Amino acid sequence: MKWTIRILLFSLFLYQTCFAVVKENFKECSQSSFCRRLRGIKPDNSNYVLNLKSLQVSDNSVESELWNSAENVKFKLVLTALAGNMFRLYADEISPLHKRYRVENVLNGEPQVERLEVLKRTEDEVIIQFGDNKAVLKAKPFKVEFYKDGTLVAVVNGRGLFTIEHFRTKNVQVDGEENQLQQEDPGAWEENFKSHHDSKPRGPEGISLDITFPGAVRSYGLPQHADRLSLRTTGPGGLDPYRFYNLDVFEYLVDSTMALYGSIPVVYAHSSSNTVGAFWLNPSETWVDINNSKDQNVVSSLVNLVSGQASESRVDVHFMSESGVVDLFILMGPTPKDCAKQYTQLTGVAPLPQYYTLAYHQCRWNYITEDDVTTVVKNFDEHDMPVDTMWLDIEYTDGKKYFTWDPIKFAHPDQMLMNLTSTGRHLVVIIDPHVKREGGYFLHEDSLSNDYYVKTKDGNVYEGWCWPGSSSYPDFFNPTVFDYYKALYSKLKFDNVNNDIMIWNDMNEPSVFNGPEITMPKDCLHHGGWEHRHLHNMYGMVYTAITYEGLLQRNPNRRPFILSRSHFAGTQRYAAIWTGDNNADWNHLAASYPMCLSEALAGVSFCGADIGGFFNNPDVELLQRWYQAAVWLPFFRAHAHIDTRRREPYLFAEDVRHRIRTALRLRYAHLPTWYTLFYEHERFGEPVVRPLFYMYPKDPEVVDIDNQVLVGDSILAHMISESGATTANVYLPGGSSEYWYDMRDWRKYAGNGYTSFSVNLDSIPVFYRGGSIICRKDRPRRASSLMHKDPFTLIIALDSNNSAKGTLYIDDNESFEYRKQKYLYIQFQFKNNELTSSLIDKTDYETLEWIERVIVLGAPSGVQKAVLTSKSLGSVDLETHYSDDALIIRKPGVSVRESFAVKLI
Ligand SMILES: *[C@@H]1O[C@H](CO)[C@@H](O)[C@H](O)[C@H]1NC(C)=O
Ligand SMILES: *[C@@H]1O[C@H](CO)[C@@H](O)[C@H](O)[C@H]1NC(C)=O
Ligand SMILES: *[C@@H]1O[C@H](CO)[C@@H](O)[C@H](O)[C@H]1NC(C)=O
Ligand SMILES: *[C@@H]1O[C@H](CO)[C@@H](O)[C@H](O)[C@H]1NC(C)=O
Question: Could you tell me which of 119, 245, 323, 393 has the fewest CB atoms within 10 Å of its CB?
Fold first, then answer.
C-alpha cells in the first residue's frame, strides 16, 4: 500500500516538474495492437464483397449485404443521400456476438435526407445520384466511388483496407497446434503498456477504411495536433499516423502527430478545382494515416514522366479505430466553404457567445486570494490596459473540491464577484470532472451513495489520482448523473455566488495521473455496460454539454460561456477550446495559428492559445509577439503555470507595456467585427477565422501557408514567430486586382503574392482587404462592457472597382433575445462614391450607438466634402480631409439604427 502511494506521489512529482514531454509515456502505433493490426492490412486484396442481389432501395438510401468472403461474416451496408450534398456510409455486423457501440448526441440531430435516384442496378454495380452527386457501389471487391459533377472525387476502399473485425470467441491455444491464434496480433485479446494491463473482455473489434481523393494536392483538418495546417504524409517507416486519443500531454511537442486533448476526425482533401471532406464519426481511439502523392520521392515522379503518364496527384487517407461501427460522411464540397458548412450542418454551430467573452481574459494558476484578484484588476486600470475577465484556477477551491471555495483565501466570493461586476468585469472559475474521495464532501458522498461513478472492469468504483489526490470519475453517460451535475450549477449549490460566474472545464480527457497514458483504463465500465474504450474521446464533450445545460438551467436567458480542454466533434455547440498546456517558446507561438485554423475548419472556431505560453517564462520579445498574434485568434487569454514568474502585462517596462496595450486596444477596437463574425457563424456555419486556401481555393501558392490568418473575409494577419525579425515576407493573395491596406499606415498593396515588409517590435503586419467595410470602436476603455454606447468608426477599404461592403451585428450582448428578433443586422455598402446602410432583416433594437467617423482607404482624390442624408437628420454637409493615404469624413453623427447615405462630392 505504502509502495503504491509512493509511486503515485512520484508520478504527481513527474507531472508537475518534468519540463519535457515524456514521449515514451504515450503509445506509438507499433505499441497499440489494433493500430498494428489495421495498419498491417495488405492493400489491393480486399475480401469484402457486396451481395447486390440483396439490395433494398428506399427514397433516400440503398442497403445491401456486405460479405467478408475470407471469414464468412455478413455485414449490413447502407448508403444514404443527405441534404446539402453529403453521403453517409454506414456498416455494422448483421448478427454480432456483442452489440457494437454507436454514438449518440454527437450529430446536431438526425441529418436531413435527400431523395435519390437509382441510375443503374446490376449484380456488379449500383449507381445512385442526387443533384450533381453520384455514387457507384461496386460489388467485387467492394468499393464506392463518389463523383461531383461528373468528376471522380473520392473512393472508399479503393486500396482495399476496409475491415470490420467481427466479434468472435477466443480460441484456446493448444500446444503445438497450428491455429488462427498464432497469426493473431499478440495484443488482440489483452495488452500491456508500461505497467498497465488492458483486459479487452470483448477481444478485437477494430474497424478500418481507406479513402482516396483523386486529384487532391493537400489535405487539412484532423485536429487536435500540434502540427502544421497542411497534413503530412505518414506511413510505416515514416511519421506515425495522426492519433486521436484525448490525453493530457504536458508540454507537448510541436510538429507532431501525437494525440492531444481533443479529437475531431474530419479531413478535407483539396485541389484548386475541388474540395471534399470525410467525417469519420467514431469516439474510440483512432489513428489516421495520410499519404499525399506530392510527398513521394523524386524517383517516382521521374518514373511517371518517363512512362509518359500524367502523374495525377492524390491523397490517400486511412482511418483505423479500436471499436464501433463504420459511420462515414462524405462532404461533397465542391469548395472549402461548402465543406465547412456541410460539416457544421452535421455537427452544429457555436451559439453566439456573450460579447465580453471575445475581449481579453486574464488567467494564471493561480490568483491566490480575493485581494490578488482585486489588485490585478486595479493594476490593469492604473495602466490603462483593458481586461474583461479574471480567471480562477484550481486553488480557489477548498482542497480541490469543486463547487466549494477556499474558506480563507476566498472567503467572500459574492463580494469579490460584485467587485468585479461593478467595474464591468467577469469571472470564470475552473470545475474539473475528477471528484475528491473525501468523507463529508457532498459531491463524493452523493456520487458514492447513488452509484454515479465509473466502475473498474470488476465492477468496483474506479479510483485514480488527480489534483485532489485520490479521486473518482462520475459517469456522465448515465442520464441520472447528467441531470444531477446539471443541477449543481444552479445558484444554491454554488455557495450563493450569483449568475455571472462562467465555467472552465479542464482535465476532462479525463486526466488520471496514474492511469495508462495519464487517462482512464480502457476496460473501465460506463452506463449500459460500455467500456471506456468505446467512448473515450467523447467523455470531455459530454461533460461540457452538462455544464452548458446546467448554466442554461441556472439562467435560461444568459448565454453560457464554457472553456474546455478536451473536445470532440460537436463541442462547438457547448464550449470554446484552447490549445492546452503549451510552452513559452517561439515554436509554440507558431503552432497557435495552424492549430486554431484546423479547429475552425472542424467547426470549433472559438479557439485560442495561452498567451505567453503556459510552461516556463517567455522573454519580453516573445511575450509581445504573442499578444500581437493572439489579437487575431478568437479566444484571447493569457495564462501561466504556477511555477512561472508573474507576467501580467503591466509588470513590464513602459515600452513593453505600450506595445501590449496597443495590441489589447487593437483587439477591443475590432470587437464589433468579432461579434458580427460569431453571429454570422451561428447563422451561416462558416468558420470565424480562415486559412488562405479557404478564401482563395484556386491559388496553388497558398496551400501551405499557416502563419497567416483571415479574420472573416476582411482582415489578414501575419504572425511573427521568430526573435529579432526586421522583415516579414507576407503573402498577399487575390491577384493584382485585389487590394490590401496596411493597418499601420493605410498604404495600399496589390495581392501579388509574397511581399516583403519591414517590421519592428511595435506591430505585426495586418491588412484590411479592399472591398470590405470594417466597423471599429476606437475609444479606449477599461472593459468591453464600457464600450457599448461608444460610437463607431467605419473603415471603408475600397477594391479596384472603388466598391466595398460589410456587415455589423448588434444586440444586447448577453441574452437569447436575439432569437426573438431583438437585434440589428446592418449592411453597409460603398459604390459610385456613396456609402449606404440598410437593415438586412426587418428587426429593431434600441441602441445609442452612432457613427463618429468614416475613413475611406484608397479613396479617389479631389473629394471636397461629403453629404449625409437620413430621415432624422435630413441632408447635412460633412467635413472631409486627407490623411495618410486615406480620406477622413468627420462626424456623420447618424445612429446605426437608421438607414442613411453619405455621398462624396
Ligand atoms: C504512398 O503511396 C504511394 C503510392 O501508392 C506508395 O508508393 C508509397 O509507398 C506510400 N507512402 C507511404 C509512406 O505509405
Ligand atoms: C471589494 O472591494 C472593496 C473596495 O475596493 C475592498 O475593500 C474589498 O476587500 C473587496 N472585496 C473582495 C472580497 O474582494
Ligand atoms: C470589379 O468589377 C468587375 C466587373 O463587375 C468584376 O469582374 C471584378 O471581380 C470586380 N473586382 C473586384 C476586386 O471585386
Ligand atoms: C449591449 O451593447 C449594445 C451595443 O453594442 C448596447 O446598445 C446595449 O446597451 C448593450 N447591452 C447591455 C445590456 O449592456
Answer: 119
Ligand 3 pocket, residues with Cβ under 6 angstroms = 737-738, 771, 799-801
> Tens of pLDDT along 373-424?
999 999 999 999 999 999 999 999 999 999 999 999 999 999 999 999 999 9
Q: What is the dihedral of CA 688, 689, 691, 697, to 10 degrees?
A: 30
Classify 447 as helix, strand or coil.
helix
pLDDT at 634: 98
User: The C-alpha cell of 513 is what?
Assistant: 495521473
* Single-letter amino acid code for the residue at 429: V
Q: Which of 426, 777, 788 to mutate to test the pocket of ligand 4 (most atoms within 8 A of CB)?
A: 788
Alpha-carbon distance of 157 to 399, in angstroms, equals: 53
Q: What is the pLDDT of residues 21-31, one digit of tens each?
A: 578 899 999 99
Which residue's C-alpha comes closest to atom 6 of ligand 3?
801
Cell numbers found for residue 617: 517564462
Does the Cβ of 889 fall within 6 Å of ligand 4? Answer: no
419 pocket-lining for ligand 2 (C-beta < 6 Å): yes
CA distance 666 to 664: 5
506 is catalytic: yes
For 354-415, strand residue ranges (E) read 361-362, 389-392
Query: Closest Cα partner for 464 from 250, 248, 251, 224?
Result: 248
State how far the Cα of 461 lies from the Cα of 454, in Å rounded to an integer: 6
Report the C-alpha gap between 118 and 133 in whole angstroms: 12
Long-range pairs for 126-135: beta carbons < 8 A, 24 or more residues apart: 126/52, 126/55, 126/62, 126/64, 128/62, 128/79, 128/81, 130/81, 131/85, 133/81, 133/85, 133/87, 133/332, 135/79, 135/87
